[in-house]
Amino acid sequence: MASNSSGSSSDRQRIAQQRLRIIAGHLQRPEDGDSAVLSAECKGQVSKTDEEKTVPKRRQEIMKWNGWGYSDTKFLFNKKGQAEFTGKRYRLSGMIIPGLKDWMEGTFGANLQHKSPATPVLTSSAVQPPTINEAFVEEVKSTGIPFSHDAEDRVFRAHGHCLHEVFALREGKIGRVPDMVIWPNCHNDVVKIVELACKHNVCLMPFGGGTSVSSALECPPEETRSIVSLDTSQMNRILWIDEKNLTAHVEAGIVGQDLERLLNESGYCTGHEPDSMEFSSLGGWVATRASGMKKNIYGNIEDLVIHIKMVTPQGVIEKSCQGPRMSTGPDIHHFILGSEGTLGVVTEVTMKIRPMPEYQKYGSVVFPNFEQGVACLREVAKQRCAPASIRLMDNEQFKFGHALKPQVSSIFTSFLDGLKKLYITKFKGFDQDRLCVATLLFEGNREKVLQHEKQVYDIAAKFGGLAAGEDNGQRGYMLTFVIAYLRDLGMDYYVIGESFETSVPWDRVLDICRNVKARITRECKDRGVQFPPLSTCRVTQTYDAGACVYFYFAFNYRGLSEPVHVYEQVEHAAREEILANGGSLSHHHGVGKLRKEWMRDTVSSVGMGMLKSVKDYVDPQNIFGNRNLL
Amino acid sequence: MTHTTHNFSPQYMESVKGDLVNEEEFVDILEERRNSSDLGHAFRTFSPHPYKGAPSCSTADLNKAVLESQYLRYMAKEIATEMGSSVEEVREEATGILEEMSQNLQLGFIRLMGYTVSKMSKRLFSSINVNMEGLNRLQQAIQEHPVILMPNHRSYADFLVISYILFTYDIPVPVIAAGSRKYLFGPTQQMNVVNTDLNENISGTHCPYFSLYFSSCHCKALAGMKMVGEILRRSGAFFIRRAIGSDKLYWAVLSEYVKTIVRTGFAPVEFYVEGLRSRTLKSLTPKLGMMHMVLEPYFKGEVFDVTLVPISISYDRVLEESLLAHELLGVPKPKESTTGLLKATKVLQEDYGSMHVNFGRPLSVRHLCQGKINRCQYNLIPRDLPQKPTAEAQACVSWLAHLVVRIQEEGSLISPWSLMACLFLQAPTTVLTEEGLLWQQLTEKTLWLRKLALDFGARLNWPEKIPDLDVMASSVALHRSIVQRKAGRVYLVREEEPAGKRPISAEEGAFRTAAAVLMMASYRNQCLHLFVRPAMVATAIHIAKTTQRDKIFPFFFFLQDLFANEFIFIPGKSSQDFEEACFFLKKCAAIDVSQQEVTVSDAGQEVLSFLRALLKPFIDTYQVVFRYLCEDGVHSFSEKQSLPAVRNLATKLILSGELYTYEALSSDTQKNVLSALRRLEIVTKSRVSEQNEFRVNKDAVRRIGDMLSGKIPPQPLHGPPGTRL
Prior knowledge:
The complex is a heterodimer of chains A (630) and B (725). With 630 residues, chain A is of the alpha+beta class. Among the domains of chain A are: 59-108, Double Stranded RNA Binding Domain, CATH 3.30.160.650; 124-233, Uridine Diphospho-n-acetylenolpyruvylglucosamine Reductase, domain 2; 238-355, Uridine Diphospho-n-acetylenolpyruvylglucosamine Reductase, domain 3 (2-Layer Sandwich), CATH 3.30.465.10; 494-589, GMP Synthetase, Chain A, domain 3, CATH 3.30.300.330. Chain A has 21 helices and 21 strands. In chain A, helix 4 (99-108) runs antiparallel to helix 15 (395-403), helix 5 packs antiparallel against helix 8 and helix 14 (370-382) packs across helix 17. The longest helix of chain A has 23 residues, at 470-492. Chain B is 50% helix and 10% strand. In chain B, the strands form four sheets. In chain B, strands 1, 2, 3, 4, 5, 6, 7, 8 and 9 form a nine-stranded mixed sheet that branches. Chain B has a three-stranded antiparallel sheet with strand order 10-12-11. In chain B, helix 4 packs across helix 12 (248-264), helix 18 (416-424) crosses helix 22 (506-525) and helix 22 (506-525) packs across helix 27. Chain B is globular, with a radius of gyration of 25 Å. Chain B starts with 9 loop residues before the first helix and ends in a 17-residue tail after the last helix. The relative contact order of chain B is 0.09. Residues 1-23, 180-225, 334-342 and 720-725 of chain B have low confidence and may be disordered. The chains are: A alpha+beta (630), B alpha/beta (725). The interface between A and B is medium-sized, with 14 and 13 residues.
C-alpha cells in the first residue's frame, strides 16, 4: 500500500531509525506472563512512548477535525488555478496535478469560482455540555486511567467518515457526542473500565481509528445514559513476536501503518493492508471483518487472527490455546469478528506474520472494455493465480486516475505518454471511452514474481489485454489513499461523494456494475441533481466464487437545498439495487447503523435471533450501547 | 383530428424538438411517397442510432450465444435424459430449430420490403398517419434500453407497416416474432386453453402484400411460403411454430433466443401480446409466454431496464373484414377456391381509407414493476437454471400485459364509422335488413354519441374541416361492403347469394345475416373499450335495481370478473375502474354520485340505455352458452363438440324469435364463455388426452346465469389465484 512507499526516502530512513531504537527498547523488556505486572508497567510507559506514536491522545494535534487525514495534507487549487497536494507525507505530496482542474470541471460541472468552504474552527459552544455520571468519573479517577471531558476530544470521537458525518462537521453542526473520552493503556485498564461501566450503568463505545463508514460511531440520539468513548489508540504495542510459529501478539489499538512499520523493523509483515490502514486499528479490523488489498496472499482478517482477547460485561472471552484450527463447536472468534463493538472491546490479538517479501512489482493491463476485463479476472480466479492484488477499474476510474497524474518533469516522458496513447487507441483500436485498466501487485521472490507475472499477462492477452506498465499500476494504488483527501477538495467546490462496496458471485459482476451505476445516475436525475454524477466502480478482490466490487459516486450539488438528503436517498437506492442484483450487504465496511435496516433480510429472522441472544447473554445491560448491527 | 399538411422529411424530423410537435399531430407518411420516388426512398441512406448499451453483434454471434448458453445446456441435458437420447443429438436438434426460427436482418431485403410496401400502401390506403412525437420518443428510447414494440394485431399488414415506418424514419428495424396460433403460448400459462384452437389460415388470399408478388404461393403457414418467408426473415422476422406448448426443446430455444436479443440489445423486439390477430377487432386477453421472456432479463438483473412501447394501429377498414366474419361463424367463405392472385387483386382494387399508427409513450418496466416484483428471489439459484416462474412473477407479468393492452386501446383512434356501428347494431335486425334505418336518425344519434365519446375521453378520428354530414356519408360509402344508403335510409348488406340459385334454407339465411352483423359488430368493437366500464355500471344499476353504491359495486365487480375474458380489465383495478366509470357518467350528467348513492338523472336515461344495449349482445350470448351447458344431455364435452352444438342452439333460438342478437353465433364469444368458466373452475378438464374433455358444474352455471339476470344477488366467483381480478 502506498503509505509504505510514502514520503521521500530520506524521511523514511530517519523515521525507521527512530522506530528501530524504540522497538529495540520494547523487545529488551522481559516478557512476563503476569498481567498485573504488565499492567503496572504499561502505565509507566505512557510518557516514554508518547512521542513515537502515530496517533496521539489529542488527535487534533495532527489530524483534521472536519475532514480526512493529516492536517498538513490536502488538495487545493493554488493561485495559478492548478491543483496541488500539500505536505510531505505521500509520494504525491508537493506536486502539481495539472489535469485535475479540467477533470473536475468536466466531470462534475464544478467551477473554481463557486466555493463551498467549511467552517474553519470548531466552536466549543456548538457542543452540548457533557452528561456526567459523577460516581463513575470518581471511580475512574481513582484508577489513574486518563480521561477527558474536553469538547474537541469528544467531537473527534463522535463520528466516522460517512459523507453526512463530515458534511455536518464542515457546516459546524454537532449532534450527540460522547460525554467523556477515556484512554486505557492496556488490557487490564479495559477490564477495570468495563467493570465500572457495568456498575454505574454507563454506555461504552469503543473507538479505534475512527475510519468507520457505516455510522458505527454515531452516538444513538435516544441514549440517555452518559456515553463514554473508549479510545484504544494508546494500546498500541507489539507485545511479542514468536518467530518459531510466525505469530505476533499485538495490542488492538495499534493502527495499520504502525503495525507494519514495527514488524518490518524485525523483518516481518502481516500483509494486511486495508485502504484505511494509515489510521484504522487492529481492533477495528476484527470488529468489522476487515479485508486487505493483499488478501490473495495473506488472507482477510479472519484468516489472519490466531487468538483474540475481548473484554465483555460478562468477563473476558478468549481461547485456551493457539492451535491453527479447531473443531470445538462454532468458532467463538466468529462471535467477535464483525460484532462492531456491540459485545465488548477487543484488547489483544495474536496474528500471523510473514517474512517481508523479497521483491515487489507493480503492473497494469489495459483492456478494450470492462466486459473483457472482468472475463480476465474471472479466468485468473479460476486458475487460482491471482497476484497479491489485482484490481480492475472501469473507464471512468481510468480517466480519473489519468487526471491525477502529477506534472511530468521532462518533455521526453510526456512524449512517451503520447506515444503509448497513440499505440493503444489508434494502432490497437481501443475506444478511449470504453477501455479500462487492471492494476496488479506481485510479491515474493524475484524469480517467482517474474514467472507469475508472465502467467497473468498471458491470460490477460487472451482477453485482449495489453500490458501497460508499472507506473500505471502504482498510480492506481495511490488513488485509494488520496481519494479520501480528494473528497475534501470536492466538498470545497459543491461536490459530494462516497464509496461503498459489495461482494457478488462471478456471473453477476457485470450486471451489478452496470445496474448500480445506472441506478445512481437515474436516481440523481430524478432527484434534481443538475449535472450527471460520477458513477464508477472497480473490482477490487477476486475469490473462487465471486468478487468484491467497489463503487464511487459523487455529484455536484449546486441548486439542491438538501444535498445530504439527496445523497442519502441515492445511496439507499444504490444499496437496494445491489441487493436486488444478488450482491451482499457489505464485503468489509460492515453494517453499523447505516445498513441495519437490511440485516434481517440478509441473515434471516432466525439468524437475527441468534445474534440477539448472544448480545442478550453477553451484555444484558446494553453497556456496549452503540446500537450497531442489530 | 387534424391532418397536418407539413411535409416532414426524415431529415427535418431530427431537428424538430419534442415540445414543438403536438402529441396529437399525425403526419401522413404516404404524402411524401406520392411526391417522390419509391426507389429513391428504398435506397436512401439508412443509419439509425442503435442501442448504446453494448457493442453490436452479428446474427451469427447471436445464434452462437444462444446455442452455447448455459440455459440451453441445462435443458439439453434434461431433455436428453427424458428422451433417452444423447445430449449431442438434442443440441443438434436445437441448432436446427434455431436455424428455422432465426431472423437474418439484411438491409437489402428491408429496402425491397420498403419498396413493396410503398407501392402497395398507396393503392390500398388514402393515408398512413403516424404520430411524430411518438417516433421521436421511440428513437430516444431505443438508444437507452432494450425496447419491446408491442402493437395490437388487427391485420396481417401490421408488422410490415411498422417496420416500414421505422425504416422511413431511420429507427432500427425490429426483429419480429411472427407465426401463427399458439405461438405465444407457454407451458407456464394455462389460462386460455379453450381459446387457441382456431385454424389460423394464412394463405395468399388474406395477405395481398405477399400474394401480389408471390402469387403462386399457396401455403398454409407463413414460414412455409419459402420466398415470402425468406423476405420476411431477412427483414427481421423470426418464425415460431404452431402448437409449441408441449415441445420443450422448441420452447427452450425460443425463450433463450428472445432473451438473448433483449440482453444484448441486438435490435428492438416486436411481438403481439394479444397472441393472435383479433378476429373481432376487440382486444384479446394477453398471452403471457412471450411477455415473460422479454421481461425476465430485467427481473434477473441482466439489463438495467426494458422499455415497452405500446403501439395502437387503427384501420378505417380492415383488409380481412369479410374473412374475419366467416371465421367467426366457423364456416368457410363461399367460393374460396379462386386463386389467391385473383382475390388479392380484388382486395387491391378496394379503398381501405386511412390507417393510424400511434406510437405510445415508452414504459419503463423498472418503474412499473416497483413493489410488484422482488428481484432478490433470483439470488439463490443460478439464473440460467430452468425454472417455473413464481406466482409473484406471473402476476406481475400478467398485470403488465393487461396494462399494455389497455394502453393500446386508449391509444387507438376511434372512427366515425365505429360510432355509427354502435348505433346501427342497436336497431332490430329486421329493421336493418328489411325496412332500413332512417339516415337522418342515424346521423343525429351519431353526433350525440360523438359528444358522449368525447366526454369519456375518446381519441376521435373525426376530420374537423369537413362538414359532419359529409364525414358520415363518406364513412358509409367506404363501408359499402356492409351498408348501403338509398332513399334516406341505410340497409345492412348481406352477401350475394351463391351462384347455384337454389333456394336458401332459413339457417343459411340466418348465417348470411349473421356474417353481415358480425362484420358490423367488429367495427363497433373498435370503440367498445371506451364504453365498457360505464356500460357495466349502467347494467349493474339496472339489474341490481338499487341506488345503493355498496350494492352496485359488487354487481359491477361480478360483471368484470365474468367478462374478464371478453374485455380487458387490469387485474386488481376494479375499484378504480368503478370510480372512473362513475366519474365519466357524472361528467355527462347521466348520474349523480354521493358517498352512498348512485342516482340516475332524467337526462341520463338515454345514455344509460344506450350503454346497456351495448353490453346486451354479450350478456345474451353468455346466457345462451349457459343454457346449452345446463341442458340435460350435456355432461362432459370437448370443444369440438360444444361449438357446433351452441351454434345450433343459438340458430334455433334466433329463428324462433326468442333470441334477438345474431352475435350469439360468434364462435369467439362462445369460446370466451368457456374460457371464463374454466378460469372460474366451473368447467374443468376431465381427461388429459389428445382431445380435451371438459366437465361442467351445472349448478354453478345456473347460479351465474341467475346472478346475471338479477334473480339472485351476485356472489364472489372463486377462480384460481393469480388469474382473478
